[in-house]
Amino acid sequence: MIAGKIPLSFTQMEQLIYSLPPAEDPMIAALTTPEGWQLLQEYPYRPPTEDKDIVNYLRKHQPANLAAALQTQWILREKAQEKMGEVAQTKLFTRNGLEQATRKIVAAQRAKRFAAAGVTNLMDLGCGIGADAMELAPTCQEFSAVDISPAAATCATINLSDVPTAKVFCENAENIASQKTLPALFIDPARRAASGRALSPDSWSPPLGKVLEWGKRAPHLAVKMAPGIDLAYLPTGYHAQWVSVEGDLVECTLYSPGLAPEGTGRSALLIYGDQVAHFRCSTAHNPGENHLQVPPATTLGSFLFDPDPALIRAGILSDLCERLGAAPVSTGIAYLTGNELPTVQDSLAFSCYQIVENLPLKAKTITSYLHSQQTTRLDILKRGVALNIATWRKKVMPKRNRDWSPRTVTVALTRIDGAHRCLVLEKAN
Description:
Blueprint: H1 10-17, H2 26-31, H3 34-42, H4 52-61, H5 64-84, H6 95-100, H7 104-116, E1 121-125, H8 131-136, E2 142-147, H9 150-159, E3 166-170, H10 173-176, E4 184-187, E5 192-193, E6 196-197, H11 208-215, E7 221-225, E8 239-245, E9 248-255, E10 265-272, E11 275-280, E12 303-307, H12 309-313, H13 317-324, E13 327-328, E14 336-338, E15 350-360, H14 363-372, E16 377-382, H15 389-396, E17 408-416, E18 419-427
Parallel strand pairs: 1-2, 1-4, 2-3, 4-7, 8-10, 16-17
Antiparallel strand pairs: 5-6, 7-9, 8-9, 10-11, 12-14, 12-15, 13-14, 15-18, 17-18
């Protein structure tokens, strides 16, 4: 358990969730019984390898469903630490809820927007297990979280138990939003249908159009969306921000004007460890405007720049090309090339490589080069080339000589002047 964290007793937990419908998730239902809750407090996470006897003991002396529920929760808490850190050791999760949960560091950045806007009354519609709510709730005097799933609402209630002012309701968001006036809203629509992901915002639950109508009755609105959303769906008068964490594109959020001091349009938020960088698209006055296309480079420069995916989705490459004196290696390819490295201010925007060799994308040529370099490992970047990376790597890697020392070569497979090329790279930043 986290040092100094006092676990909830069953009585306290029962008082928190007494008004909620019974959880439909068998695991949550089992763990919120007196026996299940007691076991979860005694064994909050998977025992170390040397304590496997505990697992065997639980299997022998506890009902099968309860032992299985406890072990599943251990697994979820371990996975949740990747998103939430050690606080996950005291929280309750469902599989779907954890998969869709916002990372703590991203939720914290969003909460700062609401706090900066002076929001004191906030509602989280579609709160799931409460990942965003845990960061939003402490920033305002009145906070309510709503989810239609009894299991999710149960998790959110327990996960928000250390914020006394937070209230959780198990209710249909549309019923809540039917009020004449609304507080500030944060909404994460469900983007999954029975057939899989719902790509069109018209198929979300609730649909984006309805959410925007609700926003007209609220002082502020933020809507979490999938990062691959088509720009054509983004409304005028709003600000859209794409977010990446350690180079992994995780979400796009739509903000109403009061939550976007940078104004309408688009931006990217890049998070690397404790470093946070914000880049605004200077050419888009509304989020749905087309990206400004930059002509490709006439010649290959000394460096190759691989932009963070949030910058690509936000259409900020044209701004960065101008500042860097760079250009795409080819039309429609997001690799940039130039002769100057980025400033410290822009250093998080790219992975930068020096171009060592420019080779034709022919297997024999590549194998010969890799053999000459005594290559034992091959790292591959790829844009604009339809190849199966695993199959191609096996095809071009030379047979290793026992006398070779470990050596990694990095290549980028891409198009230049309409031809497929293999650029041999060395890290430059």
